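Notes continue from the previous slide.

Worked example: a multi-chain complex. Inputs as given:
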Amino acid sequence: MNGNRRQVLKGTGGMAVMGLAVSAGLFKPGSAWAQGAWNKAAFEAKSLADTVKAMGGSGATESKDIVINSPDIAENGAVVPFTIASRIAQTEAIALLVEKNPNALVASFNIPGGTEAAVTTRAKMGQTSNVTALVKAGGKFYYTTKEVKVTLGGCGG
Amino acid sequence: MADPMKIRAAMSGDKVEVKILMSHEMETGQRKDSKGATIPAHFIQSVTATHNGKTVLSAEWGPAVAKNPFLSFKFAGGKPGEKVSITWVDNKGDKRTDEATIS
Protein backbone atom coordinates (compact mmCIF):
# COMPACT_ATOMS: atom_id res chain seq x y z
CA MET A 1 0.00 0.00 0.00
CA ASN A 2 2.68 2.40 1.10
CA GLY A 3 4.97 1.43 -1.76
CA ASN A 4 2.12 2.03 -4.15
CA ARG A 5 1.67 5.55 -2.85
CA ARG A 6 5.35 6.29 -3.39
CA GLN A 7 5.02 5.14 -6.96
CA VAL A 8 2.04 7.36 -7.56
CA LEU A 9 3.92 10.34 -6.11
CA LYS A 10 6.93 9.58 -8.24
CA GLY A 11 4.73 9.31 -11.27
CA THR A 12 3.11 12.72 -10.79
CA GLY A 13 6.47 14.28 -9.94
CA GLY A 14 7.87 13.02 -13.21
CA MET A 15 4.89 14.41 -15.06
CA ALA A 16 5.36 17.84 -13.51
CA VAL A 17 9.01 17.88 -14.56
CA MET A 18 7.99 16.90 -18.07
CA GLY A 19 5.49 19.73 -18.11
CA LEU A 20 8.14 22.20 -17.01
CA ALA A 21 10.52 20.95 -19.67
CA VAL A 22 7.87 21.43 -22.31
CA SER A 23 7.03 24.94 -21.22
CA ALA A 24 10.73 25.80 -21.03
CA GLY A 25 11.11 24.36 -24.50
CA LEU A 26 8.22 26.51 -25.68
CA PHE A 27 9.87 29.62 -24.33
CA LYS A 28 13.26 28.94 -25.85
CA PRO A 29 12.52 29.53 -29.52
CA GLY A 30 10.94 32.86 -28.58
CA SER A 31 13.99 34.23 -26.81
CA ALA A 32 16.40 32.84 -29.40
CA TRP A 33 14.36 34.58 -32.04
CA ALA A 34 14.38 37.82 -30.08
CA GLN A 35 18.16 37.75 -29.81
CA GLY A 36 18.66 36.82 -33.43
CA ALA A 37 16.40 39.68 -34.44
CA TRP A 38 18.55 42.33 -32.81
CA ASN A 39 18.96 44.85 -35.57
CA LYS A 40 22.73 45.36 -35.62
CA ALA A 41 22.67 47.66 -38.64
CA ALA A 42 20.12 49.96 -37.02
CA PHE A 43 22.13 50.22 -33.82
CA GLU A 44 25.30 51.03 -35.76
CA ALA A 45 23.69 53.75 -37.86
CA LYS A 46 24.88 57.29 -37.22
CA SER A 47 21.91 59.29 -38.47
CA LEU A 48 18.14 59.26 -38.59
CA ALA A 49 18.06 58.49 -42.33
CA ASP A 50 20.42 55.51 -41.94
CA THR A 51 18.44 54.18 -38.99
CA VAL A 52 15.18 54.36 -40.93
CA LYS A 53 16.85 52.48 -43.80
CA ALA A 54 18.19 49.81 -41.46
CA MET A 55 14.67 49.35 -40.07
CA GLY A 56 13.34 48.74 -43.55
CA GLY A 57 11.87 52.14 -44.44
CA SER A 58 12.81 54.61 -47.15
CA GLY A 59 12.24 57.88 -45.35
CA ALA A 60 10.39 59.50 -42.48
CA THR A 61 7.87 62.33 -42.39
CA GLU A 62 7.78 64.89 -39.61
CA SER A 63 4.66 64.59 -37.48
CA LYS A 64 3.09 66.69 -34.72
CA ASP A 65 1.30 63.64 -33.32
CA ILE A 66 4.40 62.34 -31.59
CA VAL A 67 5.28 63.81 -28.22
CA ILE A 68 8.67 63.62 -26.54
CA ASN A 69 8.49 64.31 -22.85
CA SER A 70 11.91 64.98 -21.38
CA PRO A 71 13.79 67.68 -19.53
CA ASP A 72 14.95 70.55 -21.80
CA ILE A 73 18.15 70.72 -19.81
CA ALA A 74 19.56 67.48 -18.41
CA GLU A 75 22.01 67.98 -15.58
CA ASN A 76 23.35 64.46 -15.81
CA GLY A 77 23.73 62.99 -19.28
CA ALA A 78 24.14 59.48 -17.88
CA VAL A 79 20.47 59.31 -16.97
CA VAL A 80 18.04 61.34 -19.07
CA PRO A 81 14.39 60.31 -18.71
CA PHE A 82 12.27 60.19 -21.85
CA THR A 83 8.60 59.50 -22.43
CA ILE A 84 7.58 59.10 -26.04
CA ALA A 85 3.93 58.98 -26.94
CA SER A 86 2.39 58.58 -30.37
CA ARG A 87 -1.16 59.57 -31.30
CA ILE A 88 -0.78 58.13 -34.79
CA ALA A 89 -3.24 55.31 -35.44
CA GLN A 90 -1.79 51.78 -35.76
CA THR A 91 1.52 52.65 -34.20
CA GLU A 92 3.65 49.51 -34.49
CA ALA A 93 6.99 50.65 -33.18
CA ILE A 94 8.58 53.54 -31.33
CA ALA A 95 12.31 54.30 -31.40
CA LEU A 96 14.44 56.84 -29.61
CA LEU A 97 17.49 58.41 -31.27
CA VAL A 98 20.11 60.77 -29.90
CA GLU A 99 21.82 62.40 -32.86
CA LYS A 100 25.21 63.15 -31.35
CA ASN A 101 25.73 59.88 -29.51
CA PRO A 102 28.37 57.54 -31.03
CA ASN A 103 25.46 55.54 -32.47
CA ALA A 104 22.17 57.36 -32.87
CA LEU A 105 19.68 54.65 -31.97
CA VAL A 106 19.10 54.20 -28.23
CA ALA A 107 16.18 51.83 -28.14
CA SER A 108 13.29 50.60 -30.23
CA PHE A 109 10.01 49.24 -28.91
CA ASN A 110 7.48 47.07 -30.71
CA ILE A 111 3.95 47.94 -29.72
CA PRO A 112 1.46 45.10 -30.20
CA GLY A 113 -2.27 45.87 -30.47
CA GLY A 114 -3.79 46.63 -27.06
CA THR A 115 -0.65 48.24 -25.72
CA GLU A 116 -0.64 52.01 -25.39
CA ALA A 117 1.68 53.74 -27.87
CA ALA A 118 3.71 55.36 -25.11
CA VAL A 119 6.88 54.22 -23.40
CA THR A 120 9.09 55.70 -20.72
CA THR A 121 12.75 54.89 -20.34
CA ARG A 122 16.08 56.51 -19.52
CA ALA A 123 18.93 57.14 -21.95
CA LYS A 124 22.54 58.21 -21.88
CA MET A 125 23.55 61.36 -23.75
CA GLY A 126 27.16 62.25 -24.49
CA GLN A 127 26.46 65.93 -25.10
CA THR A 128 23.76 68.45 -25.98
CA SER A 129 21.96 67.00 -28.97
CA ASN A 130 18.79 66.78 -30.96
CA VAL A 131 16.67 63.89 -29.80
CA THR A 132 14.37 62.21 -32.29
CA ALA A 133 11.40 59.99 -31.67
CA LEU A 134 10.74 57.72 -34.62
CA VAL A 135 7.38 56.04 -35.00
CA LYS A 136 6.41 53.30 -37.42
CA ALA A 137 2.68 53.24 -38.14
CA GLY A 138 0.90 51.42 -40.93
CA GLY A 139 4.25 50.61 -42.57
CA LYS A 140 5.31 54.28 -42.72
CA PHE A 141 7.81 56.19 -40.61
CA TYR A 142 7.15 59.45 -38.78
CA TYR A 143 9.39 61.47 -36.52
CA THR A 144 9.61 64.48 -34.27
CA THR A 145 12.72 66.16 -32.89
CA LYS A 146 13.59 68.28 -29.89
CA GLU A 147 16.85 69.56 -28.46
CA VAL A 148 17.99 68.44 -25.03
CA LYS A 149 20.85 70.34 -23.45
CA VAL A 150 23.31 68.34 -21.38
CA THR A 151 25.44 70.08 -18.79
CA LEU A 152 27.41 66.94 -17.78
CA GLY A 153 28.12 64.24 -20.35
CA GLY A 154 27.13 60.62 -19.85
CA CYS A 155 29.78 58.86 -21.87
CA GLY A 156 32.96 60.12 -20.22
CA GLY A 157 35.06 57.99 -17.92
CA MET B 1 23.54 35.94 -12.50
CA ALA B 2 22.11 39.37 -12.42
CA ASP B 3 20.03 40.75 -9.59
CA PRO B 4 16.24 40.48 -9.80
CA MET B 5 14.21 43.15 -11.53
CA LYS B 6 11.83 45.32 -9.60
CA ILE B 7 8.49 45.14 -11.33
CA ARG B 8 5.27 46.95 -10.43
CA ALA B 9 2.11 46.19 -12.32
CA ALA B 10 -0.99 48.10 -11.26
CA MET B 11 -4.36 48.91 -12.76
CA SER B 12 -4.56 52.46 -14.10
CA GLY B 13 -8.13 52.96 -15.26
CA ASP B 14 -8.91 50.03 -17.58
CA LYS B 15 -5.24 49.51 -18.45
CA VAL B 16 -2.36 47.92 -16.63
CA GLU B 17 0.59 50.17 -15.97
CA VAL B 18 3.86 48.25 -15.76
CA LYS B 19 7.02 49.78 -14.32
CA ILE B 20 10.26 47.84 -14.44
CA LEU B 21 13.63 48.62 -12.92
CA MET B 22 16.35 46.27 -14.11
CA SER B 23 19.73 45.79 -12.57
CA HIS B 24 22.37 45.90 -15.28
CA GLU B 25 25.60 47.84 -15.75
CA MET B 26 24.82 48.74 -19.42
CA GLU B 27 28.49 49.18 -20.33
CA THR B 28 28.76 51.06 -23.62
CA GLY B 29 32.05 49.77 -24.98
CA GLN B 30 33.18 53.41 -25.35
CA ARG B 31 34.77 53.85 -21.93
CA LYS B 32 38.37 53.07 -21.03
CA ASP B 33 39.73 51.79 -17.75
CA SER B 34 42.68 53.32 -15.84
CA LYS B 35 45.19 51.51 -18.07
CA GLY B 36 43.62 52.85 -21.23
CA ALA B 37 42.11 49.55 -22.31
CA THR B 38 38.58 49.70 -23.64
CA ILE B 39 35.99 48.19 -21.33
CA PRO B 40 34.02 45.74 -23.48
CA ALA B 41 30.38 46.53 -24.13
CA HIS B 42 27.89 44.70 -21.95
CA PHE B 43 24.28 45.72 -22.31
CA ILE B 44 20.74 44.40 -22.52
CA GLN B 45 19.79 43.76 -26.13
CA SER B 46 16.23 42.61 -25.95
CA VAL B 47 13.37 42.90 -23.52
CA THR B 48 10.06 41.07 -23.77
CA ALA B 49 6.99 41.54 -21.61
CA THR B 50 4.25 38.92 -21.68
CA HIS B 51 0.82 38.65 -20.11
CA ASN B 52 -1.13 35.36 -20.33
CA GLY B 53 1.34 34.11 -22.91
CA LYS B 54 0.78 37.13 -25.16
CA THR B 55 3.59 39.60 -25.81
CA VAL B 56 2.49 43.04 -24.66
CA LEU B 57 5.77 44.83 -25.39
CA SER B 58 9.07 43.88 -26.94
CA ALA B 59 12.10 46.09 -27.22
CA GLU B 60 15.55 46.15 -28.75
CA TRP B 61 18.08 48.21 -26.86
CA GLY B 62 21.48 49.59 -27.65
CA PRO B 63 24.22 50.46 -25.17
CA ALA B 64 22.91 54.02 -24.85
CA VAL B 65 20.08 52.99 -22.54
CA ALA B 66 21.04 54.26 -19.09
CA LYS B 67 22.60 52.03 -16.44
CA ASN B 68 20.07 50.08 -14.37
CA PRO B 69 17.40 50.61 -17.01
CA PHE B 70 13.92 51.82 -16.23
CA LEU B 71 10.98 51.04 -18.47
CA SER B 72 7.33 51.82 -18.16
CA PHE B 73 4.34 51.19 -20.42
CA LYS B 74 0.60 50.45 -20.33
CA PHE B 75 -1.40 47.66 -21.90
CA ALA B 76 -5.08 46.74 -22.05
CA GLY B 77 -6.75 43.45 -21.16
CA GLY B 78 -5.15 42.68 -17.81
CA LYS B 79 -6.97 42.04 -14.54
CA PRO B 80 -5.83 42.21 -10.92
CA GLY B 81 -4.27 38.95 -9.76
CA GLU B 82 -2.94 38.03 -13.20
CA LYS B 83 0.75 37.90 -13.87
CA VAL B 84 3.08 39.94 -16.07
CA SER B 85 6.38 38.36 -16.97
CA ILE B 86 9.47 40.27 -18.15
CA THR B 87 12.55 38.73 -19.78
CA TRP B 88 15.75 40.42 -20.85
CA VAL B 89 18.71 39.05 -22.78
CA ASP B 90 22.05 40.85 -22.93
CA ASN B 91 24.81 40.79 -25.55
CA LYS B 92 26.73 38.11 -23.65
CA GLY B 93 23.72 35.82 -23.71
CA ASP B 94 22.85 36.26 -20.04
CA LYS B 95 19.16 36.42 -19.38
CA ARG B 96 16.77 36.92 -16.56
CA THR B 97 13.01 36.51 -16.20
CA ASP B 98 10.93 37.91 -13.39
CA GLU B 99 7.22 38.24 -12.92
CA ALA B 100 4.84 40.41 -10.98
CA THR B 101 1.17 40.15 -10.04
CA ILE B 102 -1.14 42.91 -11.23
CA SER B 103 -2.60 44.83 -8.29
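Summary box: Chain A touches chain B through 40 residues (CB under 8 Å). Residues 2-36 of chain A form the longest helix (35 residues).
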